[in-house]
Amino acid sequence: MPFIANTDEQRRQMLADIGVANAEDLFADIPPELRCGDLNLPAGLTEQEVRYRMQALANRNRTGMVSFLGGGFYDHFIPAALDALVTRSEFYTAYTPYQPEISQGTLQAIYEYQSVMCRLTGMDAGNASLYDGGTAIYEAIMMALRITGRRRVIVDDSLNPIYRKMVRSYTTNLGIDLIETPSFEGLPDRARIEQELNKDTAAVIVQNPNFFGRIDDLSDVAELAHRHGALLVMSVYPIALGILKTPGEMGADIVVGEGQSLGMPVSFGGPYLGFMTTREKYVRKMPGRIVGRTVDAQGRSGFVLTLQAREQHIRREKAMSNICSNEGLCALTSLIFLSLLGKEGLPELAQVCADKASYARKRLLEVPGVTMRFPNKWYFNEFVLNLPMPADRVTRELLNRGIAAGFPLGRYWPEMTNCLLVAVTEKRTKQDIDFLAHALEVILCS
Amino acid sequence: MIPQGLLYTNEHEWVKLDGAVGTVGITDHAQSALGDITFVELPPAGKALSKGDEACVVESCKAAASVYTPADGSVTEGNAAVDEDPSLVNSDPYGQGWLYKIAFTDAGALAGLMNAEQYAQFLEEQEH
Amino acid sequence: MQLIFEKSVPGRRAVRNVASDVAEPVQIAKNLLRAKPAELPELSELDVVRHFTELSRRNFGVDNGFYPLGSCTMKYNAKVTERVSHYPGFAYLHPLMPQLPGGEMLVQGALGLLHKMDRALSEICGMSAFTMQPMAGAHGELTGAMIIAAYHRDKGNKKTTILIPDSAHGTNPASAAIAGYKIQTIPSNSQGFMDMDAFEKALTPEVAGVFLTCPNTLGLFNPNIKKIADRVHAVDGLMYYDGANLNALMGHCRPGDVGFDVMHLNLHKTFGTPHGGGGPGAGPVGVVEKLVPFLPTSVVCAHEDGSYYLDYDRPKSIGYIAPFYGNFGVIVKAYAYIIMLGREGLFRVSENAVLNANYIFRKLQPYFDYTLPADKPCKHECVFSASRQAKSGVRAVNIAKALIDRGYHPPTIYFPLIIPEAMMIEPTETESKETLDAFIEAMIEIAKIAETNPEEIIAAPVTTVVSHLDETRAAREPDLASLA
Q1: CB-defined contacts A:B, below 8 A
Q2: CA–CA gap between residue A387 and residue A401 (Å, rounded)
Q3: Residue B32 forms contact with A (CB below 8 Å)
């Protein structure tokens, strides 16, 4: 059998030492009527057969096309050194660092990860990561409820619609007053938010760059929230923070986001990386694993899991969250990615993405009938086009030509059936963009 | 060991009554069971509490214990000194390590609490 | 060891990004830009490689040595499963692709894999259907609890309470509470089984469900399990199975046949995907027929022609609990593991996991206290108590640290909470008799030294890069980040 070391002879010896005749006797405590027969599964395979079978499945997925799909999940370049380091099995075959003396590798890496996420977002403290960007928003909402003791939450609808659906699911059983405010011209509608803010409001949730790719200075929204004693929760795209104003500079209280863009492939939806940073005064209300720096008996610096007293393994049903793992290997991935890019490399990457998106915008607007959905000029690497026909139809035809042109917004905004969300990363070349513009022109003009 | 003149709950809190205002802390037994206290979350002054409400949370590395309200009232003060130095709860649980003061709506509602002898006996029974 | 930031040299670079191939750079308005760049480290590629290689050497994984961490199933992670998960056809597939018109046909391999995985797990567990969306075991628990809530809401049942034994993992009550339920804790007897009298007393019509694991946290199969299920079903409650311990049962007993209605698995435990230093995991949730309508959106379905599609039209669904289809990369690895092992292999996995655990249980019985009947088998793990050693001052934590000095990862300690000085040992099926014998020798040696020279054990560990770390200081003065 694969991966079972003991020989039949060794098994006989062990059974004799235990004092039973055969392995079946070890299952004698299961009532016979609860035993199952042979599982209806195929016989096992050799490694060679497994690889062939898995390759055949992989081949039935189209990954080679020119893609402008984003929507919060981006195809960025991954350096070779990253794979070489993150696949070291001392990292990936370890568990949660319960024994700090033999887990300093994982623990120091998480401390450094918490540090880079703070530096990137302009905040004071972060946790060891959460499942993904969507669950991170839910956890941020719960954290805001704990801090404020209030039950009302305002969500701007330029937040990723998938995350908004997730938040709705999670809060179904919790008696939370969840308000969605419609955005105005693709930006949070300050007047609407102000109308909805009251003394019961725990948090206002916004995203920057938002789902439409628009960037904004949300300092005034932070002020509005604070004036009513509410917190500002901001979901961000970490690559964009290479150049964009930080949530810390804008006055956000809790920052979350999807870290996939930091060295993880899009991988059909996961594993991803939810991150969370906050102000120092709120660290004890932060959920999840947290690593802290301390000293050992000899005064040497070392790292431990800390602030765990409010978590589920101790507080059970009174815990702040039921989350007990983090996305440790993904957090390590993002740390290595940011270390390889460095202080100059990240802004450079962000600028290249913005430059290429700007070119794509200009180029696509030259196609007759194509306009920008929103008037404002400031975008990061994603933007919404208005097409002269349903975006679904255009997307389908472009798929047939080997181009994933972007994401048609009608699925989540019924009034935007002609709108297409286009994302551009550094991996898309000028040639790719020209190819898209040309194909679009052919379809629209035929 | 257990100071006279205080009232004790079976959740190991003590109350020192001064008119209608009570000072509340946790007992030596409780601090010892929790280990090194690392943080105390104090109730804000003015907060209205009903009997049985969680008034504060006392954290150590290995545990987080709720401190409950012995009778209805309104918080008048949290102990800023334990906020600054939570180890006071370990070193002086009945003195500098007090947690909060509360103005009781009806101090008579504390009648059911234990005195020092009764609490000593309660601890002994719990041991067995 | 220095922090990575302390190795930084201004102006040093590692990776060069592709240059922009478009003519005009865009100048974004200044009020939208950060005042100064984030203080990320400035290092050469070799600096980065050396830093993380050095960190990896300060870690201990299954590939380094025996890792009998109870309830975590730290089995060998087959390299082939890592390899296949990196195939570009999986790794570079965008999750929005199937939401494009016509896009489903371009991801048939991925949807097929998810569907086959659902079928395989349903067969292994005796369930009707599995969702792959939960991203960890605790996330699966929460999903399961939300399904329970949705079922009762749909039926108009007035249910308020979930029953959970005091021997359960803390995530069970936390998950049920987040799904909106009150928790009633049921005391356990010395074998870690729910006290039947207390259970009967607590079982009112308000009970929405019961969370159990089987075998339980002491590694024992509850002989009353079927009776419990029948009693819970009689009040229209649901039985939740915490799949943490499934490695004991594959091919021997199926939770669905026992009477469980909803369950989660930990693919990173039973199905051999790596734990990654604390994630990413995957916690698929399985349900019986009557709960299928409540599964999270979307559900992978098969057309009659054999092609697959995503069903989003699920009016009774609990909704979105993940952005897409779960931790797909982890599911790929677990699927490869399942087809490699096959019917016979999975049966042998559990048989050998139980054999290895019983071997350790028998061999260590003379040296450590235990609460189980000595002549009864345990399942995939066994629990000892260090209470005998504690009399000379050697506690479970000291034994754990002494094992570290001898090259082993310690067992889980102080869990389950109902056993004083608990040491929970789960060897898994992938370990050889030689490894088990050497570990047993080490435990016996520690037990002997604990009698003759307890100070030596209490001083452990002495071989590690750091000694005992000051956790009180860490919690009193939290230093959670190095800020620039």
Answers
A1: 22
A2: 18
A3: no
Give B51's contacts (C-beta < 8 A, 6+ positions apart).
Answer: B69, B70, B71, B72, B109
| Percent of chain C scoring above 90 in pLDDT | 92
- Among residues C8, C58, C41, the alpha carbon closest in space to that of C277 is found at C58
Give the integer Cα–Cα distance in Å for B109 and C63. Answer: 62
Query: Domains in chain B, ordered, with CATH?
Result: 7-109 (2.40.50.100)
Q: The dihedral of CA C241, C242, C245, C246: what is its sign?
A: positive
Scan for tokens 């020192």, then name that residue. B16
Beta strand A407-408 pairing with A152-156: unpaired
Residue C407 in this model has a pLDDT that exceeds 80: yes
**A263 part of contact set with chain C, CB < 8 Å:** no
- Which residues, other chains included, contact A299 with Cβ-Cβ below 8 Å and sequence gap of 6+? none
Nearest CA in chain A to C73: A95
Which among A267, A302, A427 is the nearest to C329, CB-wise?
A267
Residue B117 distance to chain A (closest CA, Å) = 31
Task: Please give the ipTM for the structure prediction.
Answer: 0.97
Q: Give the pTM.
A: 0.97
Read off the pLDDT of residues A168-198 as tens digits, 9 standing for 90 and up.
999 998 999 999 999 999 999 999 999 999 9
- 3-class DSSP string for chain A: CCCCCCCHHHHHHHHHHHCCCCHHHHHCCCCHHHECCCCCCCECCCHHHHHHHHHHHHHCECCCCEECCCCCCCCCCCCHHHHHHHCCHHHHCCCCCCCHHHEHHHHHHHHHHHHHHHHHHCCCEECCCECCHHHHHHHHHHHHHHHHCCCEEEEECCCCHHHHHHHHHHHCCCCCEEEEECCECCECCHHHHHHHCCCCEEEEEEEECCCCCECCCCHHHHHHHHHCCCEEEEEECCCHHHCECCHHHHCCCEEEEECCCCCCCCHHHCCCCEEEEECHHHHHHCCCCCEEEEEECCCCEEEEECCCCCCHHHHHHHCCCCCCCCCHHHHHHHHHHHHHHHHHHHHHHHHHHHHHHHHHHHHHHCCCCCEECCCCCCECCEEEEECCCCHHHHHHHHHHCCEECCEEHHHCCHHHCCEEEEECCCCCCHHHHHHHHHHHHHHHHC
Q: Do A284 and B41 touch (CB under 8 A)?
A: yes
Residue partners of A392: CB distance under 8 A and separation at least 6: A408, A410, A417, C101
Mean pLDDT of C269-277: 96
Q: What is the pLDDT of residues A390-424, one digit of tens each?
A: 999 999 999 999 999 999 999 999 999 999 999 99
- Inter-chain residue contact A310 with B39, CB threshold 8 Å: no
One of 3.40.640.10, 3.40.50.10490, 1.10.10.10, 3.40.1000.10 is the CATH number of A80-337, namely: 3.40.640.10
Of C3, C109, C468, the CB nearest to A112: C3
- Exposure string for A50-86, b = 16+ CB within 10 A, e = fewer: bbebbeebbebbbbebbbbbbbbbbbbebbebbeebb
Interface test with B, best of A285, A311, A315 (most B CBs within 10 A): A315
Residues near C174 by Cβ (< 8 Å), separated by ≥ 6? A312, A315, A316, A317, A319, A321, A322, C138
- pLDDT, one tens digit per residue, over A208-266 is 999 999 999 999 999 999 999 999 999 999 999 999 999 999 999 999 999 999 999 99
CATH of A66-75+345-445, one of 3.40.1360.10, 1.10.287.990, 3.90.1150.10, 3.30.1330.60: 3.90.1150.10
A132 to chain C, any CB pair closer than 8 A? The answer is: yes
